[in-house]
Amino acid sequence: MINLTRKENETTSAFVRRFMMRVQASGTLKESKAKKFFRKPISRSLRRVAALTRRKKAFERARLRKLGRIK
How many CA within 13 A on the CB side of residue 31? Predict the structure, then answer.
């Protein structure tokens, strides 16, 4: 939990900016966005296969783009 008090003679916009910087530094916002949707955990081997498949498709798209078959 983040506790901040407004400094003397500090503008509201400066206070909000300081608050947002503190929130980003703490990782609270990133953690809450990650927890927004449940992702079913997958094994390391399945992640590897998925990554290799994505990479293979990317290389194929680049090859076809180079040959002028797709834009």
Answer: 7
Q: What DSSP assignment string belongs to the chain?
A: -----PPTT--HHHHHHHHHHHHHHHTHHHHHHHTSS------HHHHHHHHHHHHHHHHHHHHHHHHTS--
pLDDT tens digits along 18-36 = 999 999 999 888 888 888 9
d(CA 71, CA 58): 14
- Do 57 and 49 contact (CB within 8 A), yes or no? no
pTM of the model: 0.48
Unique residue bearing structure tokens 């399945």: 46
